[in-house]
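Support request, please re-run this one:
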Amino acid sequence: QPPLTIQQARDRIFGFCLMNDWSARDIQKWEYVPLGPFTSKNFCTTISPWIVTTMALEDYVTETSAQQQVDPTPLAYLQDPNYSSYDVQLQVAIQSSKMDSPVVVCESNFKHLYWNAAQQLVHHSVTGCAMKPGDLLGSGTISGTTDRSFGSMLELSWKGTKEVSLGTEVRRFLQDGDTITMKGHCGGKGGGGRVGFGQCVGKILPAGDYATNPLVKVDRYQNLVLHHYWESSASWRVRTVLALKDIPYEKVGVNLLKGQQSEVQYSEKSPMAQVPLLECLDTATNETVHIGQSVAIVEFLEAAFPDRKPLLPSDHLDCAAAREMVEIINSGVQPLQNKFVLRYLDETTKGAFDTRSFAAMRIEKGLRALEALVVKRHESSPCHEYCMGGFAPTMVDVFAVPQIYNAKSVGLNPHEVCPTLAKISDTCLKLPAFQASHPSVQPDAPSS
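Re-run finished. Output below.
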């Protein structure tokens, strides 16, 4: 992406809010020379409740405190012919857990920034950083020239050497129980209109102890139960996804040969009377949810457990390519070689229809099509371990492996029909998740 010009930057800035980019004091002291603040500032950010648009701030355009940029003089790409800022009055207050009301410790102004917002955005883009709608950028500490206008606790206490008065208390650094409130507004005096930014409020709580109080995220969907059949390729897909994402679940076997899928207690949950069927508790509504069809289940798991191993690319085109490959298997191959479909054809034609050859033809056509897409994708990828050309299996591999397994059952040799896919399948089957989901190791699989 080419760098932005100053005018392009102005056109792209939607608005402003207040931001408290918290710093962990001891970590920042250790790392900021020579690394700069990194882990000390990436753990928490607080923002005010709404965005004030640039249009709403037009009446409050003002000179910066510097007025002109001469020390340093901006490089050509940063020079702003309309160098200016906004007259936003800023205030920071601290209230301890023992205080009845907050005490203001800082009063500053947005115009004290030497580099304005447009220049900061241009500089951010100069090395090709792809800025996107919705990106949030921090301006950096906004400090004036007086002690009262210093914009960080580190400056106010001058690295802990000075006490900051809170009336009945003092601070050199923030403490547990302190509430920090930032406020900002434009105008309001002399009869002019006032534009407020709302409050940016955060309270410091005691640090958690992982040994006694681990910060574990509770998933919304609990008590997962998978109704499956050991030999079902669709069931195999879902088992693999659950294993890859390390989601705990219970298996309940549905014996298709004995017709258990058609029993009322099951068909009420699965109107198609098919496997797999995922059952889970939605803790937000306290209702039990049933989801059928392997693609729907996998998509649900991808969305419901976003912090676990992702199986779809984040890029829109890559994601569409992955879904295209998945549907070649899911829609173009698997339904046409399903045992129940082949059995129906055999029964209705009284054995006159060569179902095995038909299944082999459909599987070969689908695998050759998928092979072509995968090979083309690998041409522009440094990694050829998996279908999408990445370094980890995706939803495509999850669907491809069972289909390649099925190809052997109708006399096809995958290493001849689709050598790339066959090699990928061999790689996947060495992974614990694919091994744990394999039909042969399922509890309802025949013992012999």
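The longest strand covers residues 194-203. The mean pLDDT is 93.
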